[in-house]
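Try it yourself: sequence plus 4'-deoxy-4'-aminopyridoxal-5'-phosphate, in.
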Amino acid sequence: MLAKVGNPLFRDMPTTIFEVMSQLSLKHQAINLGQGFPDDRGPDDVRHAAADALLNGYNQYPSMLGTPELRQALAGHARRFYDLDVDWASEVLVTSGATEALGACLLGLIEPGDEVVLFEPMYDSYLPIVRLAGGVPKIVTLKAPDWSFTRDDLERVFSPRTKLLVINNPLNPVGKVFDRTELALIAEYLQRFDAYAVCDEVYEHLVFDGRPHIPMITLPGLRERCLKIGSAGKTFSLTGWKVGYITGAPALLQPVAKAHQFLTFTTAPNLQAGVAYGLGKDNDYFTGLAASQQAKRDRLARGLTEAGFKVLPSSGTYFLIADIAGMGFEGDDAAFCMHLTEAAGVTAIPVSVFFAENPVRNFIRFCFCKQDSLLDAAVDRLKTWCARSV
Ligand code: PMP
Ligand code: GLN
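Structure, out:
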């Protein structure tokens, strides 16, 4: 018997819900609308660019900051979509996915005792890394159904000890897109308390209904205070590639790059070449991506409503939320999702896992970035199940 054990922070934490539900889905041969990944192959030309670089290009360690080609493409992307001037050599860092980008930002910026403002529901990797870094979480609970917050909420959590805020916009799991007024209110507090923002904007190209994506870093006064995180996984429907990127002022990026150098150091060069190529695609690609996912959102929302679910609006991401409160099920959202996988053959994700302080237990998350035929098959199964059980 070993007397010494692993770090309780990790040892006592459950396995991430995405792995748990995907394994359960597999076991029951269910249709997996849980974990967020598209079920197509991703753009042919982007995959060819990566394949060509793998066969004919350089396959040794690239610079720890990322290949110059990809960093230049990211600076071009910032200029094209957000009118943002970025120095590719000192203001861009390529990471192994947004997950690593988040880890590097939080480990690179937080000192033990620093307060960190977070909004819940929140992506499940944030809190463990904040805690690992010794940060003290200060949480704002967004209120359903529009996931709103108030000035009083910010007044309660900000203090002179606030080091940074983490914001995910568009927001996984609920599909909220923060509007300019909300972002401006947050900006006011960041400036008043001299704090930074780590901005997880992996769904920047998955904003619907003609709404703009407003990167926090473009707000007046925030250019030096924000690190903007993106993910090629989302922008090119290639979630397995794990290519992420961070854009921000050198003073903020520098400690983050130091954390990155001992997390992964660098990222596969052929995948970086594929992403650099992809970022140069014409505007039709990017508007087409949002339009096709918007159509899938509408298709699934319609089907779920017909089946008897109450669906909440979603303005972005891969996800929409159904309210199960009125469905007569005895048990919480987690029990509901287990039961749905086993009895209906469709997997969703319980939303309570995205809360640390005030969980709501009547919402479940469905992922819609799937072939239409798969969405239809899931809806058929849910209609059959609802007709039997509700
Ligand atoms: N942030 C959010 C909000 C996400 O939904 C995800 C999952 N894709 C990530 C970060 C991680 O992205 P990546 O797969 O690039 O690590
Ligand atoms: N971001 C994905 C989701 O929210 C999951 C990524 C993962 O499994 N780590 O479904």
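One thing you can check immediately is this: The chain has a mean pLDDT of 97.
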